[in-house]
Amino acid sequence: MTEVQTYPTIDEAARAMARGAAYMGGGTIVMREVNAGTAAPVLVRTDDPTLRQLRAQGDTVSLGAGVTMAQILAEPQLDFLHPVARRVGGPQVRNMGTVGGNLFAAHPYGDFAVALLALGARVQLAGTSGARPVEDVLRDRARQVGLVAAIEVPRPRHGSFGFTKVSRVKPKGVSILSIAVLAPQTGGTLRGVRVALGGMGSGPLRSAAVERALDGQRLDRTTLEKAQSVASDGLQPPTDALASAWYRSEVVGVHLRRLLQSMESS
Ligand SMILES: Cc1cc2nc3c(=O)[nH]c(=O)nc-3n(C[C@H](O)[C@H](O)[C@H](O)COP(=O)(O)OP(=O)(O)OC[C@H]3O[C@@H](n4cnc5c(N)ncnc54)[C@H](O)[C@@H]3O)c2cc1C
Does the keyword Ribosomal protein apply (predicted)? Predict the structure, then answer.
């Protein structure tokens, strides 16, 4: 039996979590756990409107953790996130599924978290000052990190961000793998590259090998070949019902190269 407690403010919900309750956002994952009888005994939620707030202007956009994929798709100024939000589930899932929940969604979910990782997003936790790098939250998410209040996302320069998702069922199948790349260029040279992968480990991760292959280079054929050849270096992708570890390692470089080529020509 699961009890659901609803609080009027984020802070009260966060305090309830500190006492051991689990949080429910849009519930697209949690409600399945409730139905399966595996959910935490106490779930908390909040009607606090700040959780649904979205600031889309400026160099850094701010997404309340309760912002849904559908809200993102309805905001023209968040167009750089549209290719990502559009690939999360079908319409019903996008109407309910939140950006906060996506940070905690286990493989094969978490496509939006992969994009946030490449974009260098920062996460604000309720009751704390300052924001933490999203990689810290992804690393610690199996432990209780607290209630995510909002996510700050640096707006990428036009054409410098790309996302692709590989799935068996289109358009709304879950990921075999997903790839997000931030590749800003200064005078034709790549600087500050961030490459994030989903489906290539237990959760979203950055590929140090690909970042090294790209950073400081021109996006030419030699660089593309190098990036492709090191794409699975040091990674241990899972084998599951969607694909084997071997398959993921074989194709990740091909899809990475295609994504980089599409950005080169955008
Ligand atoms: C049919 C179907 C298809 C799907 N397809 C995709 C897909 O293609 N890609 C994809 O990435 N995901 C997919 N999902 C998974 C899920 O819908 C998304 O990941 C969604 O973004 C999760 O958000 P939510 O608000 O519903 O999370 P919830 O179910 O509410 O919560 C999920 C987890 O996150 C925690 N959580 C939620 N919000 C917060 C917060 N603010 N602070 C701290 N912890 C929090 C919860 O405690 C829970 O552990 C799919 C799900 C279904 C049912």
Answer: no
Q: Which CATH number fits domain 161-264: 3.10.20.30, 3.40.50.720, 3.30.70.890, 3.30.390.50?
A: 3.30.390.50
CATH architecture of 3-154: 2-Layer Sandwich (3.30)
Task: For 103-125, write each residue's pLDDT tens digit.
Answer: 999 999 999 999 999 999 999 99
234 phi and psi, to 5 degrees?
75, 5
H helix or E strand, kind and range, residue 182: strand 175-182
Question: For residue 112, how far is its CA from the centre of ligand 1 (angstroms)?
Answer: 10
Cα gap 203→49, rounded to integer Å: 30
| Residue in the block written with tokens 């074989």 | 250
* Residue of 2, 9, 93, 138 to test ligand 1 pocket, by largest number of atoms within 8 Å of CB: 93
How do the domains of the chain map onto residue ranges? 3-154, 161-264
Amino acid at 63: L
Q: Which atom from ligand 1 is nearest to the alpha carbon of 111?
A: 11
pLDDT tens digits along 203-212: 999 999 999 9
